[in-house]
């Protein structure tokens, strides 16, 4: 990739980022590194978010100090990571949660040639040498994430056109898509996530590169992919991300055994996102159930006559098939299966016998709302949904299903006459 003639530098009057918006502990880290003679910048997403008028989730620091040097400078630090060596600087205050400031060494674009001596604590699995801020910018994923803030002179430094893309609301991959996606396939999913989170479009070559290399996502760490999807759930963007993933050919690579009506699965996931936005937390297991339901309905139609034993067996098998590579806990998979079985119980309407016990189950209220969303999409589900709502009489399910606690009445015993023999 050809380097720019020089970086674009925004002076303090030209941007909204000031030190008053930066965490004091981060400023302390920057000052400490500067006092030791090293470069130190705020890098990545924090700069992007402040320029967009958003509140950063955290602040990352980039420096030319090597990991072993960072460990020496900061006694409250710990080196982590095998792929990239990163220093976590810990701040502990009484009565507050621990805070971590992440510090990374600028990475170069070249590779070690085997002749250069390197401290054991500085070595990582990429084989990349350390470099300059410009080299480090070229190693980042997207242009909008390659912006640096210099707290000494209050300037923002842009080596790769990130400011221009930020203004145009475009996600653009840095470098050749084939090389960068092969280097880290998770970048394909992250491109979609940033586009949804920020309301940006994806630059044509970046998007076509995802189409071309979608199959590479199968080689990515499932633990990393699961963490990305968990964060999407917390941000309430899972449905939109998966929609874009299908358009880019990535959905089938992420979940090769996802069966049934994909439109229904994405609709239900988006419905869960909307509930989260409204402040109603949805468990991760609900997302698993939403994605597994279409495949279950294909093998065992959601109707009053569906045998619950078969539903239980099929739902367990389908959830395992779709999500086995992601190593979800048995607890999550169990809750997803229970939610699916509850939908089939609700579909039976008045024909389901154990109504009182069922309505007292903790998952019933949410299952009924879930079924209500299905009733809005399928005409045949309106009648059983209305039956359960009428049965509850407008009361919350937990209240309607709870039995009154019996009073313990002491049985009155007639006193025996004195002197009466006991048989």
Give a structural overview.
The chain contains 19 helices and twelve strands. The protein has about 425 residues and is α+β, with helices and mostly antiparallel strands. The protein has three domains: about 1-170, Beta Polymerase, domain 2, CATH 3.30.460.10; about 170-255, Hydrophobic Seed Protein, CATH 1.10.110; about 260-400, no CATH class. Strands 1-10-9-2-3-6-5-4 form an eight-stranded mixed beta sheet. It has a two-stranded antiparallel ribbon with strand order 7-8. A two-stranded parallel ribbon has the order 11-12. Helix 6 packs across helix 8 (about 205-215) and helix 13 (about 285-300) crosses helix 15. The protein is globular and about 95 Å long. The termini are far apart. Residues about 395-405 have low confidence and may be disordered.
């Amino acid at each position: 990739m050809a380097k720019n003639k020089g970086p674009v530098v925004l002076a303090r009057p030209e941007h909204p980022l000031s030190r008053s918006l930066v965490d004091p502990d981060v400023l302390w880290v920057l000052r400490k590194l500067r006092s030791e003679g090293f470069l130190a910048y705020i890098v990545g997403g924090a700069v992007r978010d402040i320029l967009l008028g958003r509140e950063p989730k955290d602040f990352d620091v980039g420096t030319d100090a090597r990991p072993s040097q960072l460990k020496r400078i900061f006694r409250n630090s710990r080196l982590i990571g095998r792929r990239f060596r990163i220093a976590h600087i810990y701040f502990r205050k009484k009565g507050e949660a621990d805070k971590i400031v992440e510090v990374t060494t600028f990475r170069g674009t070249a590779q070690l040639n085997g002749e250069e001596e390197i401290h054991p604590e500085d070595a990582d699995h990429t084989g990349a040498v350390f470099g300059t801020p410009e080299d480090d910018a070229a190693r980042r994923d997207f242009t909008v994430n390659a912006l640096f803030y210099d707290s000494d002179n209050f300037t923002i430094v842009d080596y790769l056109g990130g400011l221009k893309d930020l203004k145009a609301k475009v996600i653009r991959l840095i470098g050749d898509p084939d090389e960068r996606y092969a280097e880290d396939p998770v970048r394909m999913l992250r491109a979609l996530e940033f586009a949804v989170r920020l309301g940006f479009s994806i630059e044509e070559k970046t998007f076509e590169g995802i189409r071309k290399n979608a199959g590479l996502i199968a080689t990515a760490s499932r633990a990393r992919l699961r963490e990305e999807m968990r964060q999407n759930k917390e941000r309430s963007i899972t449905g939109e991300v998966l929609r874009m993933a299908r358009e880019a050919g990535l959905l089938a690579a992420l979940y090769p055994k996802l069966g049934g009506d994909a439109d229904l699965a994405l609709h239900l996931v988006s419905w869960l996102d909307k509930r989260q936005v409204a402040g109603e937390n949805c468990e991760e297991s609900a997302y698993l159930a939403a994605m597994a339901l279409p495949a279950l309905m294909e093998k065992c139609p959601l109707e009053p006559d569906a045998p619950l034993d078969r539903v239980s067996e099929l739902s367990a098998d389908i959830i395992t098939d779709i999500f086995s590579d992601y190593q979800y806990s048995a607890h999550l998979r169990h809750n997803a299966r229970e939610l699916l079985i509850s939908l089939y119980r609700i579909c039976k309407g008045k024909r389901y016998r154990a109504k009182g016990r069922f309505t007292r189950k903790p998952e019933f209220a949410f299952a009924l709302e879930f079924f209500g969303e299905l009733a809005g999409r399928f005409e045949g589900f309106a009648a059983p949904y209305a039956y359960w709502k009428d049965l509850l009489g407008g009361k919350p399910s937990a209240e309607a299903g709870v039995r009154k606690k019996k009073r313990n009445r002491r049985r009155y015993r007639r006193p025996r006459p004195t002197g009466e023999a006991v048989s």
